[in-house]
Write a structure and sequence with these properties.
The protein is α/β, with parallel strands linked by helices. The strands form three sheets. Strands 3, 4, 5, 6, 7, 14 and 15 form a seven-stranded mixed beta sheet that branches. A six-stranded parallel beta sheet has the order 10-9-8-11-12-13, sandwiched between helices. The radius of gyration is 20 Å and the shape is globular. The protein starts with a strand and ends with a strand. The structure holds NADPH dihydro-nicotinamide-adenine-dinucleotide phosphate (NDP). NADPH dihydro-nicotinamide-adenine-dinucleotide phosphate binds next to α2 and α3.
């Protein structure tokens, strides 16, 4: 059995030495009510960075010396629980372990004949729900409006932009490489995309890309990219604050523009959220996401890293933009 634990709290950008890889030669024996799980796919996500710090947040920090946990798809390899049968696949929050015992609480069975298993960590999982709920509940998009998405080629961003197109918006994406920018227009149907790494003046680039101004901004990155968007917002704009990956590893307070004058001048709304705020909308979201997927209106990308031992590196690579779409480890 292999386990990845948090050895020390990262300072700035996490490194491999913040984690420890442990190998044990033990067999796990289950008791009545328990199941034995083998990890199939592990989700690595930017939000895990927050849990590695001990600052107060919406979820408790990871404990030092204990396994990291994230969304995992696992196979039931033995069961003494009536609700689960050997061979079932389940999705839920699990430890970064190749095998583990569970009582089945909080686990959902997933159907590998309905969608590829990894999709339940992305478009049919937490990231798809985040995209749908954030955009519809806070962004309140209307056909004909302009939507800007940062982190657009990532797991959440690529779904947000496509939903924007389905709902009849003009959609502009921001991402970090030419390849990603190309993918946004060719594969995901964005109207326009900007590479923030090769654009000197983001404010001007956005002005050109959004001739009618920005009505909805779905923000995954924060920092200077979002500052540039602020200069282009329209009256009654809605800014959906989903994440701020560009500042997650900061050791000093970022120097951002003051948002208040922009909000006042434009009667604009800026609202942060966590996906679990919208649990009551999950059935509606899943119905749309799986329906659009089946109709071919929605597509997705995955970067699948092979091997449990590479889980930590896959997590670190999120901060270097190595992923296109959802970053997933095949254990
Ligand atoms: P992504 O798939 O978008 O992966 C992260 C991407 O962020 C990278 O590929 C990279 O793309 C980009 N990035 C990394 N560093 C920077 C930087 N310094 N500046 C700008 N972009 C950067 O991850 P997710 O889709 O899983 O998550 C996206 C955001 O949504 C995160 O901020 C995450 O924390 C948040 N989130 C929030 C949830 C909520 O409930 N509020 C739930 C899930 C996610 P590039 O090459 O373009 O730089």
């Amino acid at each position: 059995i292999q386990t990845i634990i948090l050895k020390q709290r990262p300072v700035g950008k996490p490194t491999l030495s913040d984690f420890e890889f442990i190998k044990e030669d033990t067999d796990l024996n289950i008791e009545k009510g328990e199941i034995l799980l083998e990890a199939t796919y592990i989700s690595v996500d930017p939000y895990l960075r927050g849990r590695m710090s001990d600052a107060k947040s919406y979820v408790a920090p990871f404990e030092l010396g204990k396994p990291i946990t994230s969304g995992v798809i696992a196979k039931v390899i033995a069961s003494k629980n009536d609700k689960f049968t050997e061979g079932d696949f389940v999705s839920g929050m699990m430890d970064w372990k190749t095998q583990q015992i569970s009582k089945g609480e909080g686990l959902l069975k997933v159907d590998k004949d309905r969608a590829p298993l990894s999709a339940y960590l992305g478009i049919l999982g937490m990231t798809g729900l985040t995209a749908y709920c954030g955009l519809t509940q806070i962004g309140k998009p209307k056909a004909g409006e302009t939507l800007v998405v940062s982190g657009a080629a990532g797991a959440v961003g690529s779904v947000v932009g496509q939903i924007g197109k389905i709902l009849g918006l003009y959609v502009v994406g921001i991402a970090g490489t030419d390849e990603k920018v190309e993918m946004l227009t060719s594969k995901f149907g964005f109207d326009h995309a900007i590479n923030y790494n090769t654009t000197d003046d983001m404010k001007a680039a956005l002005r050109t890309a959004c001739p009618d101004g920005v009505d909805v901004y779905f923000d995954n990155v924060g920092g200077t990219i979002s500052d540039a968007v602020l200069y282009n917002i329209n009256k009654f704009a809605r800014m959906v604050i989903c994440g701020a990956i560009s500042v997650y590893n900061n050791t000093e307070a970022p120097k951002s523009v003051s948002v208040q004058p922009f909000l006042v001048k434009n009667s604009a709304l800026m609202q942060g959220f966590i996906v679990s705020n919208y649990m009551d909308k999950f059935p509606e979201a899943m119905k749309h996401l799986s329906g659009w997927l089946a109709e071919g209106k929605l597509t997705y990308s995955e970067t699948v890293v092979e091997g449990f031992a590479n889980t930590t590196q896959a997590f670190l690579d999120l901060f270097d933009g190595k992923n296109k779409g959802k970053m997933i480890v095949k254990a």
